[in-house]
Amino acid sequence: MREGYRRATVRAIAADADVDVAMVYYFFGNKEGLFTAVSVAGPEHPLRQLAALLDEGPERIGSRLVRHFIGRWDQGTAFEPLVALWDTAPLLPQARDMLHSSLIGPLAKRIQEQFGVADAELRLELVASHLIGLAFARYQLKIEPLASAGADRLAATIGATIDRYLTDPLGLDGR
């Protein structure tokens, strides 16, 4: 994450982890496999956190999800994998496929059942893109007043939109 996908080497990553480079290849196959495991399958992805928060119940899920992420990002944790994924996603079809098969697909079924809505995959992609856009604008670009807005204010306003993505009719008429 520190070097970015293009500049990082498997040899340097293995050295930082104090493991033999062959072990990295054994467990992850190649650099793309390692990156995918860290950025897509890791617990930092917004959709993985959405699943964990749903275990606590669906009430005000949007506000709770936004508050959770702002809290983590304000502490400087869990943002780097999202930035790295944003930067490299066009280069890594394996990461996109893994995101869908391991996260979006199963979570979409749960969203559809829990909220009684159609288009669950689209809804989840809207949630993820909204949160990643928030992170990019607030922490990378540091756009004001968004960058200095309080967590409560953002959780209330953006959370309502996330709730709408998950529960309200999207007005797409099946398109």
Automatic annotation (TrEMBL):
Any single Pfam family the record assigns to this protein: TetR_C_16
GO terms of molecular function: DNA-binding transcription factor activity; transcription cis-regulatory region binding
Transmembrane segments: none
Residues of the DNA-binding region: 9-28
Residue stretches making up the HTH tetR-type domain: 1-46
Coiled-coil regions listed in the entry: none
Matching Gene3D superfamilies: Homeodomain-like, Tetracycline Repressor, domain 2
InterPro entries with a match to the protein in the record: Homeodomain-like_sf, HTH-type_TetR-like_transc_reg, HTH_TetR, Tet_transcr_reg_TetR-rel_C_sf, TetR_C_16
UniProt keywords, alphabetically: DNA-binding, Transcription, Transcription regulation
The protein's name in its UniProt record: Transcriptional regulator
